[in-house]
Structure formats: C-alpha cells, structure tokens
Design a protein that fits this description.
FAD/NAD(P)-binding domain; flavoprotein; alpha/beta; Class-I_Pyr_Nuc-Dis_Oxidored; disulfide bond; Enolase-like, domain 1; dihydrolipoyl dehydrogenase (NADH) activity; seven-stranded mixed sheet; NAD; 468 residues; single chain
Length: 468
C-alpha cells in the first residue's frame, strides 16, 4: 500500500494548488481525480472554456458591429462557424489541463485516476473505471471535490434542451431563443455568448436585480449595458415549471404581481447557482461532518471535525470562486508545514466576465449601510477617459467607498473594459489598508482604463476629480 503525507481528493484549482504547495514544502503528495483530465470544473467545464467562448464571440461581434467604424472593411458576409468555435475552446481546455499534468510531474506528485472515497480517516479507496480498486494511506487528506450546477426541484434536466452551463459549452447550433433561468454570473456570461452569435436571450431572475450579491450600482449599470445589446430581462419572476415539447421548451413563471407569464424557446439554460459536491466521497466512513447545505464543516484552519482531514474550495463555506479555492489550498499546505498563513476573505475579488466586465472587492454600499458605517463615495465614469473613447468601450464606472473619518478604502466596485484585471489594484491597496488619498496620489499611466481608479479615488478624497 502506497503511503503519503498528504492526499488531495479533487484536482481543480484548489486541489492541484494544494498538492503543489504541499510538494514544495517537502511532503510526499498524491492527488486523486475522478475524471480523465485534471483541472476540475474550472479548467474543463467552467472558467477556462467559458472565457474562450466569450473571447471568440466578442471577436465576432466586433467584426459584425464595429470593424467598419474602425475603417476595416470585410468583403462578403461574416459568418459564425460554431463547430470551429467549440473546437478552439476545447483546444484551450486541452492545453490547460495538460499544463496541470506537467506541474504534477514536475513536482513529483502521484496522480491517481478514479473515484476517491474514504475507507476510514487515514485510508482512501480509489475505484477506477475498469473496476479496479486501489487503497492508499494518507497521514493528512484535503477534500477538494468542488461543486456541480444546481437546479430547481421541479426541473428535469435532459441535458439536450434543458441544460446547465456544462452543456451550454458544447452546443452544436446557435439557439434561436435561449431562456436563461438565473441572472447571476454564469447565466449572464453564457447568455451574452449566444446573444452575440445571434440568439434571442431572455433572462428570468427571481430577485429584483441581476448579480444580486454585488453592489447595486453595478447591477443597474450592467443591466443597462446588456439591454443595449438587446438582452431581455424579467426580474422578480418566480419560475414554477419548465417543460419540453419536442424541440421547444416552455417556461412558466409568476411575475411580481403574481400573474403567470410564459416563455417559449428552443433552449433553457438553468443557472441557479452551484451545490457542493461530495457524492461518492463516503465522508461517513471517516466521520467527517457535513452541514445542512451539504458543505463540509471546517474551522478557521479549514480543518474538519476529524483532525487530519481538511477541506477547501466550493465544498466548504464561502464564495465559490477558483481563486478563493487556490488561496485555501495554499493555506492548508502551509498550516500542515507549521507555518501561520492567513486569508482575508473580505479581500477575495469577485468578477463577471461579460463585456463590460464587472469586478469588486470589499464591502458594498448596501453592506456598509446595514452595518451603520459612515462612508463616502467617489465615482468616475469610463466615458470620460481618452483610452475608453479610443477603444469605444465607454460604458461603466469605478466606484471607491472609503471610511468618512479615516479615509481607509472599504470597497472598490467597477464595471468597464478590463475590470477583471483592474480590480487587483483595489485588492492590493486594501491589503495594505490604503486610504483613498493613497490611491489618488499614485501615478497612473496615460492613457489607460486604470486612470478611472485614480479619478474615483480623487473624488472620494476631496471630491476633486480632474477630468469631469
């Protein structure tokens, strides 16, 4: 029987990062993956493939709508080759997952392919597809089994017309009308992909705004921008039935007045969040406790009630984000090595990769109001930037929230071009407990989108932005 200092169950961003960090710190490490390729949801059917399709569809939309204005004439009709688009996406996925395999080899991490399940607290059974079962012994185990798409109790997913994000990444045709249930990150990103390619897209959301977990100002601005792109929104609608008839999907919902509304399309994307995935893990055999939402219960060190077993990422409390899982994987590895790592969960950024991109870190205005914090706001529109006008990406703004008494930055919220990258400036500033004035006094290259951060900080400091 092979013995290890650490066994990691699950090879997504949390799992493979945990394994690498454990190996770097001198621990003999194994990683167990149920599927044929490493990388988990993020690399195979999540972050990476969805961004590939977002980029491809963005290029197409630019060619159809904006190239002429830039002085680029394309003879003939610009057409979508959906087969090639999906193939390119898969190529990106394959290259990325092979990169993870390379990192496992480089760090001398043993990779086991099969379903990992606890035999007891220190032994893990690995069932391969061929029916073979192998058992390994691990001094410590890290559960990193991630999450799966959620659905609603009355919805029967057929994975053909009534689909999740996984199937939406593999469609063989462009929908005529895609009904998206859920106005969160995943639904909006994939909805925009198919809207750009020519589908009619209707978003049906239970709450009274899209991206409900983010700052209200971002929700309003993003919906305004997506409406200009002809996406349709039906807020405060409670879906009560989804039925397929042939190639048609009928969705019935009650609006905010309680009146029934019917939507008919050829595809329905169910995007109502994700659930922690522990199926087949046999946590009972190890004595590991789950909470009432199916998450693995952990303490501040991400340690379960069984002292040698830890859990990270989507399978534990907190935001279901790949980069949060990575930080947690690093934390557990370093804690096992006797170090004193720390994660500030308030400073884990959130991003929506639509265009315009949406990104945020820290507290929202709603949260600050609820907590009774006396704060000030500095906001600056993207359209006032020379760089934004040059690229024709004028939608959006940067908003900085700062403590009224101390000027410490409490939250940074932005929507616009390249905000997914730009938010790191806010994270960095807040990690060092910067004031709005600190951010305002930093030199920002001109012309860049980042100048909006400086201007918003100026607005928060002394209400003295330069360019508006």
């Amino acid at each position: 029987m092979n013995q290890y200092d650490v066994a990691v169950i699950g090879s997504g961003p949390g799992g493979y990062v945990a394994a690498i960090r454990c190996a770097q710190l001198g621990m003999k490490t194994a990683i167990i993956e149920k599927y044929a390729t490493l990388g988990g949801t993020c690399l195979n059917v999540g972050c990476i493939p969805s961004k590939a399709l977002l980029d491809s569809s963005h290029h197409y939309e630019d060619a159809v709508k904006h190239f002429e204005e830039h002085g680029i004439d394309i003879p003939g009709e610009v057409k979508v080759n959906i087969e090639q688009m999906i193939a390119r996406k898969q190529g990106v996925v394959d290259q990325t997952t092979k990169g993870v395999q390379f990192l496992m080899d480089k760090n001398k991490i043993d990779v086991y392919q099969g379903l990992g399940s606890f035999k007891d607290a220190t032994h893990i059974n690995i069932d391969s597809e061929g029916g073979k079962t192998e058992t390994i012994e691990a001094k410590h185990t890290i559960i990193a089994t991630g999450s799966k798409p959620s659905t609603l109790p009355f919805i029967k997913l057929d994975k053909e017309r009534i689909i999740t994000s996984t199937e939406a990444l593999e469609l063989k045709e462009i929908p005529k009308h895609m009904i998206v249930i859920g106005g969160g990150v995943i639904g909006l990103e994939l909805g925009q992909v198919y809207k750009r390619l020519g589908a009619e897209v209707s978003v049906v959301e239970f709450m009274d705004r899209i991206i409900p977990g983010m700052d209200g100002g971002l929700s309003k601005e993003l919906m305004k921008s997506l409406k200009k792109q002809k996406m349709k929104f039906h807020l405060s609608h409670k879906v009560k039935s989804v039925e397929r008839k042939g190639d048609e999907v009928i969705v019935k919902a009650d609006d905010k007045k309680g009146q029934e509304v019917t939507f008919t399309g050829d595809y329905c994307l169910v995007s109502v969040g994700r659930r922690p995935y522990t199926d087949g893990l046999n946590t009972e055999a190890a004595g590991v406790k789950l909470d009432d939402r199916g998450r693995v219960e952990v303490n501040e060190h991400l340690q379960t009630n069984v002292s040698n077993i830890y859990a990270i990422g989507d399978v534990v409390r907190g935001a279901m984000l790949a980069h949060k899982a990575e930080e947690e994987g690093t934390l557990v590895a370093e804690y096992l090595a006797g170090q004193k790592p720390h994660i500030n969960y308030n400073l884990i950024p959130g991003v929506v990769y639509t265009w315009p991109e949406v990104a945020a870190v820290g507290q929202t205005e709603e949260q600050l109001k609820e907590a009774g914090v006396d704060y000030k706001v500095g906001q600056f529109p993207m359209r006032a930037l020379g760089r934004a006008r040059a690229s024709m990406d004028i939608d959006g703004f940067v908003k900085i929230l700062a403590d009224k008494a101390t000027d410490e930055v409490l939250g940074v919220h932005m929507i616009g071009a390249r905000c997914a990258d730009l938010i790191t400036e806010g994270v960095t500033a807040m990690e060092f407990r910067a004031s709005a004035e600190d951010m305002a006094r930093m030199s920002h290259a001109h012309p860049t989108y980042a100048e909006a951060v400086k201007e918003a900080a100026l607005a928060a400091t002394e209400n003295r932005p330069i360019h508006i």
